[in-house]
Design a protein that fits this description.
The chain is α+β, with helices and mostly antiparallel strands and about 270 residues long. It has four helices and ten strands; from the N terminus they run H-H-H-E-E-E-E-E-E-E-E-E-E-H. Strands 1, 2, 3, 4, 5, 6, 7, 8, 9 and 10 form a ten-stranded antiparallel β-sheet that branches.
């Protein structure tokens, strides 16, 4: 009797161990799963070792899986929402692109004191020196100065409006007037063709510098504050005559001076 009990005790322990590992000991209509077991699935424990318990309570595996999937979805959804919110805030906070700052024009060189003093002696204290240097590209120093009419409600004409202007050349350290614009246009030889006979009180003055031909001046006579739309009179240095002379309507050919206003007017025609 004692022997039978001792014989059955290891069998019960074996069956209990198999039961804990999930092995089936009874035949059923389903195929046996013993073929798929690995060594760890049916590893026998010592009789004195506590039986291994399942890591999860029975029947909770599917619920745990569902909870894990739900948590994963929540994390992914929150991450996507966070990314969208960050993009939205970044787009809203972006300031409009700043326009490139325009390059500042270089400051005009200071007018030498002797040039400003000479200009004041020729036209008075209200004189602005517009240009100075080798203007005619003839190796001589010159300056262009004028009495400029300030812009106001009475003077809203475009361009630089002057009442008088002079070109002066440095000869042996002295500044000598070589061209004058007041009521008429004249140089040391007489009146320039194109100058108005009746005289004017204002001119629109424009100029340009050619690297080879030098300074070109354009005088447009005005009647008061009215723009007469008259073609400007072109003046340039004539290297052959050694003086500034007016140009014809093509601004290519020089015209000789006239001793009187009447002949100066007819010379242009």
């Amino acid at each position: 009797m004692i022997s039978s009990v001792e014989d059955t005790q290891p069998l019960k322990l074996w069956q209990y161990a198999l039961h804990l590992a999930g092995c089936r000991t009874k035949r059923s209509s389903n195929a046996s799963t013993m073929e798929n077991l690995i060594e760890s699935d049916c590893f026998l424990t010592s009789a004195n070792d506590p039986a291994a318990m399942p890591s999860l309570p029975s029947g909770t595996g599917s619920g745990f899986t569902r909870n894990r999937v739900a948590v994963g979805r929540t994390i992914r959804r929150n991450a996507a929402l966070g990314i969208l919110a960050a993009c939205f805030l970044a787009g809203c906070s972006d300031a409009p692109a700043e326009k490139p700052v325009a390059e500042a024009k270089p400051a005009a060189p200071a007018v030498p004191e002797d040039i400003q003093s000479a200009a004041d002696s020729l036209l008075g204290k209200e004189t602005t020196v517009l240009l100075f240097g080798e203007l005619a590209k003839n190796g001589k120093q010159e300056f262009l100065a004028a009495n400029i009419v300030p812009k106001s409600s009475k003077n809203n004409l475009p361009g630089t409006i002057v009442t008088r202007a002079v070109l002066s050349e440095n000869v042996d350290g002295h500044w000598m007037e070589i061209l004058r614009c007041d009521e008429h246009l004249k140089n040391a030889k007489g009146f320039l063709p194109g100058t108005p006979i009746g005289g004017v009180t204002g001119w629109r003055l424009a100029y340009e510098q050619d690297p080879e031909k030098g300074l070109a001046l354009y005088f447009t006579p005005l009647k008061g504050a009215v723009d007469t739309h008259t073609l400007p009179i072109g003046v340039r240095w004539n290297s052959s005559a050694k003086r500034y002379q007016s140009l014809d309507r093509s601004y290519e050919n020089f015209l000789n001076e006239a001793p009187s206003l009447s002949t100066a007017r007819s010379s242009l025609r």
